[in-house]
Amino acid sequence: MKIITLILIVLLLLLQYPLWLGRGGWLRVQDLHRQVAAEQQINQKIQIRNGLLDAEVRDLKQGTEAIEERARSELGMIKSDEVFFQILDGNASPISPVSSVPAK
After folding, report:
1. pTM above the 0.85 mark?
2. Which entry of 12, 51, 82, 101 is 20 to 30 Å from 62 by CA?
3. Where are the domains of the chain?
4. Which pLDDT tens digit goes with each residue over 48-89?
């Protein structure tokens, strides 16, 4: 009777091994679920970024306001009839005048 019990326990363990530790086992499935969740988070961030880029492309194609705004902010361009004012921070030191050396 003890031999039959021992054989059944060994058989049960042999059947359980692939379920827990095999190629398609429970531990592998859990690892794959974690990887899928991580990739879905990355995909959500990329979709948000792509949506912003798509909106920017549509703005640039449809009107001149977006192009003008980019030219002003990134390139510092101004219109011909505008006056440009630059406001310095309070922490910025004023430009000291260059002392002129008399020529001999």
Report:
1. no
2. 82
3. 10-75
4. 999 999 988 888 788 777 777 777 777 777 777 777 676 777
